[in-house]
Amino acid sequence: MNVMNAAHVRHGSNIGQSFARREGVLKVTGAARYAADHHPAGMLYAVLAVSSVARGRVIGLDVAAARAHEGVVEVMTPDNAPKLAQHPDEKSNPFAFRMDVLQDARVRYVNQPIAVVIGETLEAASEGALLLAPEYEREDIVVRFEEAERFVPAAVGVGAPPVESHGDVEAGLRDAARCVDVTYDTPAHYHNAMEPHAIVAEWQDGKLVIDTPSQGLAIAQGRLAELFGMAPEDIFIRSPYLGGGFGGKGLIAGPQVLGIMAAKLVGRPVKLVMRREQLYGPIGHRGMTRQHLRLGADGEGGLTAIEHHVLTASSRFDDFFEPSGAVTHSLYATPALVTRYEAVRLDTGTPLFVRAPGEASGSVALEGAIDELAAACGMDPLAFRLKNYAEVEPLTGKPFTSKALRECYAQGAARFGWADRPLAARSMTDAAGVLTGWGVGTATFPAHMFQASARAEIRVDGSGLVEIGAQDMGQGAWTALAQIAADGLSLEMAKLEFKMGSSDLPDAGIAGGSAHTATAGNAIHAATGAAIAALADIAMSDEESPLFGAGNGGVVSRNGHLYRRDDESRGESYAAILLRAGRDCVEGRGEGAASQEVMEKYAAHAHGAVFAEVKVDPELGQIRVTRLVGAFAAGRVINPRMVESQYLGGMVWGVSLALHEEAIMDARTGRPVNGNLADYHVPVNADIPSVEAIIVEEHDTVINALGIKGVGEIGITGTAGAIVNAIWHATGVRVRSMPVTLDKLLGV
Ligand code: MOS
Predict the structure, then answer these.
(1) Of 473, 444, 32, which is closest to residue 247 (Cα–Cα)?
(2) DSSP secondary structure letters along 176-200
(3) 154, 157, 196, 644 — which has fewest CB within 10 A?
(4) pLDDT of residue 551
(5) Using one digit for the tens of pLDDT, what is the confidence trace for 50-64?
(6) Is residue 368 classed exposed, middle or buried when 0-12, 13-18 and 19+ CB atoms within 10 A define those classes?
(7) Below-50 pLDDT ranges, the chain
(8) What is the predicted pLDDT for the residue at 78?
(9) CB-ligand 1 contact for 512 (6 Å cutoff)
(10) pTM (2 decimals)?
(11) Using CA of residue 89, residue 665, residue 114, residue 44, what is the dihedral sign?
(12) Given this model, what pLDDT does residue 466 score?
């Protein structure tokens, strides 16, 4: 099989270095232009009017009042909205989610757009929207598990089966010496990226030019092409910077489409920026879960069975089911396991990918239950994990492409000081009388790859160009991908022109699933390799070149030169080769994608271990995470500074899952009670006094040519479990409902 050996892959002086973000100065000086920073000549402002009811129809809008308001140019409603070429409820592919874009008067969730007011100023449009005074015909709603009818979904996540198993779980549980039977709840989460969804749209002679944040330019282009009945190449999207994505910008959302429709209606460029409160509805969220786990262990503390049943929720009109059971397929060795799903339909917007979709919510439940089983067996929770972690993927029996989990446990534990942990709960109190506890959680995330293409050029002036339609959500793609590009062309960074972030460049797939560096990076690696090979062909067939006759594979590139492998005193510069050949440049193209052969034979995951210290006030129930140490192994590290930052960011979101985040729906109205950043809690600096991420070295020679696995989402996994387990260790109380707020610990 064609498994490439990463250790033998040529790479130069850029990969592995902690370069600062190449666009950092632009960002801190305000020179980086985000979508909403664009102001084409003649631009108007569009403002959404959104529904305050969760289900029904709009039967009245005072369009006349809004239109009469000074500065209002037009009001777009289902009566005058441009009709789309494809109905927005049509699902032409698994990534086409239904959207609400004024094709009819139906209301399917709170904060659904019901009109767009377009004005000369933002103020005029906003005031106009307030005058619409909508009237509704309301229908009964369901926003809680208890009131809804359960069913088994056809698929969960992206096409995964709703039941997966191996072995005899009932027998494993029957024969177990110790069992746990527990239910963990996780609430709905909203993405809450700093930058709201925004679009500046302009129609130019039937072509569409838009500035909008997107985690996947070609997917967005394809969806818009279907909706507007145009060729994808007639749609130009710029998305050089995203102020966070978190999955919410993975697919084009209804409000972005409305901005384009508004521009079409008025025949002028239009800017539409969602208000913070409007983000709680039309752009997706993490579906809530209720996870029932049954686990068994034998007399020596070896797992005998795991059953992981997930109840989750989608919307009434579309399908996305949070795949919380997936972590159980790969983490712990057990002779029998089953994951099963049930779901309900609620009158909310449709859930979507949010920061480790499935793995985040699933890992807090599995890690909590594993900890409970360790305690039932009288074992240290780390020792229990070391005994039970999987050497091969338990569901499939496949070996991992690489797995350095033991090293993660060891390095994390040493740094944290885990060896001093007393076994019994509620046995540590600090000098101020505050209960102290230590917990551990295992982290994991699949090493996905999507499909990407890249183009590379070597020019006669000795410089290089690499082009790929990749996205930077803040994770550092501008820097890391440029490092791969520079090394691929054997050029110093200063000699590289690197282009990404627009839809006219080769399709880079989606910046999601923690797969972007692996996918886009390997496409760049292939394209730059092809450009070097094309240059070598020119030189080797040129009698005047010192490389003449070096033969295939007999040439190495280094610092803008090619040399004979058998005699490195013989070489010449890229510029000299091209100049003599009378060429302006040579180009190479390449693809990045998962190898089907590798995927059939191997399980591919990044791994890690997270250790947490918490303090719980015994009188007030107040919880503080005082220390977090994570150790992660995810293959080749392109830029340690960016990778550490990704791990830390993920761990902070893990704190958020454990202690802060919770979208609360009013059961009577279906309205988010805390749909704004003041009331929807996320951790702030004061909540994170000490967080460390250790980069554990791992050489994955199987996963892809560069040996890269994803680092974006793994940090959230394991972290929430470690915190919940530490809270138990501090207090002796198991809280199984996220987030763990102080009311759940009062009187401990
Ligand atoms: Mo992410 S939820 O894979 O954008």
Answers:
(1) 473
(2) -SEEEEEEEEE-BB----SSPPEEE
(3) 154
(4) 75
(5) 999 999 999 999 999
(6) buried
(7) 1-9
(8) 98
(9) yes
(10) 0.96
(11) negative
(12) 98
519 lines ligand 1 (CB under 6 A): no
Cα distance between residue 664 and residue 675, in whole Å: 8
CA angle 590, 593, 595 (to 5 degrees): 115
Structure tokens at 694: 């250790």
Query: Closest ligand 1 atom, CA of 215?
Result: 4
Continuous segment of H or E residues that includes residue 412: helix 405-416
354 Cα nearest atom in ligand 1: 2
Q: Which of 192, 219, 355 to mutate to test the pocket of ligand 1 (most atoms within 8 A of CB)?
A: 355
Q: How far is the CA of 288 from the centre of ligand 1 (A)?
A: 17
The pLDDT score that the predictor gives to residue 550 is 87
CA of residue 240 to ligand 1 center, whole Å: 18
Which ligand 1 atom is the nearest neighbour of the CA of 245?
A: 4
Distances (CA, A) of 584 to 89, 161, 527: 49, 53, 18
Three-class SS of 51-95: CCCCCEEEEECCHHHHHHCCCEEEEECCCCCCCCCCCCCCCCCCC
The secondary structure of residue 21, as a DSSP letter, is: P
Does the CB atom of residue 710 touch ligand 1 within 6 A?
A: no
Closest CA to 330 of 94, 519, 160, 174: 160
SS3 state of residue 115: strand
Return the closest-CA partner of residue 555 out of 572, 578, 575, 580.
Answer: 572
Ligand 1: which atom is nearest the Cα of residue 473? 4
Q: Would you mind telling me the total number of residues written for the chain in this entry?
A: 748
Q: Alpha-carbon distance 253 to 353, whole Å?
A: 13
| CA 406 to centroid of ligand 1, rounded, Å | 27
C-alpha distances out from residue 394 to 125, 332, 336, 381, Å: 57, 7, 8, 20
pLDDT digits (tens, 9 = 90+) for 67-99: 999 999 999 999 999 999 999 999 988 889 999
Distance of CA 351 from the midpoint of ligand 1 (Å) = 13
Q: Is the CB of 355 under 6 A from ligand 1?
A: yes
Atom of ligand 1 nearest to the CA of 248: 4
Phi, psi of 685 (to 5 degrees): -50, -40
Q: Is 353 in the pocket of ligand 1 (CB under 6 A)?
A: yes
Give the single-character DSSP code of 494.
Answer: G
Radius of gyration over alpha carbons of the chain, in Å? 27
Longest Cα separation, the chain: 87
Please report where in the chains the tokens 């509620």 appear, as a residue. 426
Of all helices (H) and strands (E), which one includes residue 375?
Answer: helix 359-376
Kindly give the number of the ligand 1 atom that is closest to the alpha carbon of 353. 2
Among 348, 325, 346, residue whose Cα is nearest residue 337: 325
Whose CA is closest to 210, among 276, 256, 266? 256
pLDDT at 552: 58
Ligand 1 atom nearest to 510, measured from its CA: 4
Going from the Cα of 354 to the center of ligand 1, the distance in angstroms, rounded, reads 6
Omega before residue 94 within 30° of 0, cis: no
| Residue 317 CA to ligand 1 centre (angstroms) | 22
Q: Closest residue (by CA) to atom 4 of ligand 1? A: 247
What is the distance in A from the centroid of ligand 1 to the CA of 590? 25
Contact assessment for residue 658 and residue 667, using Cβ atoms and an 8 Å cutoff: no
Residue with tokens 């004979």, as numbered in its chain:
564
For residue 246, report the distance from its CA to the centre of ligand 1, in Å: 5
